[in-house]
Amino acid sequence: MNLIDKVYIITGGSSGLGKAFAHELKVNFADVIITGRDLEKLKSVSEELGCSYFHADVTNDEEIDALMEFTLKKFKKLDGIINNAGIGGWAPVEELTREKMQEVYNVNVFGAAMMGAKAAKIFKEQNFGTIVNIASTASLKGYKNGSIYASSKFALRGMTQCWQAELRPFNVRVIQINPSEVPTAFGVDDRTERSLEENKLTPKEIADVLISSLKMDERGFVPEVSVFATNPF
Ligand SMILES: NC(=O)c1ccc[n+]([C@@H]2O[C@H](COP(=O)([O-])OP(=O)(O)OC[C@H]3O[C@@H](n4cnc5c(N)ncnc54)[C@H](OP(=O)(O)O)[C@@H]3O)[C@@H](O)[C@H]2O)c1
Question: Cβ atoms within 10 A of the Cβ of 219, count?
């Protein structure tokens, strides 16, 4: 399937992986709407990439509704969403607080869930569509101090599998991509981008997996794919 004139929303498309997804989708002549919380960053990235933007926080249901309305009004259809917005949070088990858990879950779990809910309604009606959940290799195995972040990605993985069971009869593809470490602004307190490192993954490898999954003929889909650096040590 070619991606020409297909319409994709990328949550958190203003930096890191989401920005690379937007770039590669534009290279493939798709229409892209990126979202994020930092309006200035959104505007400048959308100008740089030549894509649309919509200022929306995935923790806010009204803003998600407005994003969907904006997209359908501007492009008259929606081919896919990339649930990419995500934040980190790590703590030893004895230091867990409800607030820390809720902050991460609000974005990584509830935000993705509400985006999925709105998109599924549209996709079931039109009988096509793709939902891509950007989880993590942390969704596959727990690790020290990972209670907050890893469990949020386990939850996202659970939703991926439920949505696959529900939506396949409507020709809707639900794809999960699990990157391992990619140096980005992710987990950096002041949100500055980390420099790329020789042996570690770059956003491009993850974007390549996204594009090849989307390009597959719609009769097939990749339920889940993990991406590791070959030798990051
Ligand atoms: N980098 C890694 O090593 C890695 C590994 C595995 C999985 N992942 C996953 O990949 C995804 C992207 O990570 P990244 O490395 O590209 O991180 P990033 O560079 O920090 O980018 C995160 C993006 O999400 C946006 N965002 C954050 N909270 C949001 C919210 N509440 N509503 C809307 N947008 C929001 C950010 O925009 P603002 O700055 O405007 O908030 C930014 O555009 C995340 O889900 C992350 O868990 C990353």
Answer: 7
Give distance in angstroms: CA of 134 to centre of ligand 1: 9
Ligand 1 centre and the CA of 169: distance in Å? 31
What is the tally of structural domains in the chain? 1
Whether residue 232 is contained in a domain is answered as no
User: Which residue's CA lies nearest to atom 18 of ligand 1?
Assistant: 186
Give the CATH number, domain containing residue 150.
Answer: 3.40.50.720
Q: Which ligand 1 atom is the nearest neighbour of the CA of 88?
A: 47
The verdict on residue 116 lying in a domain is: yes
- Contact indicator for 199, 161 with CB cutoff of 8 Å: no
How confident is the model over 86-130, as pLDDT tens digits?
999 999 999 999 999 999 999 999 999 999 999 999 999 999 999
Which atom of ligand 1 is nearest the CA belonging to 18? 16
The pTM is what? 0.98
Q: Which domain holds residue 75?
A: 7-227
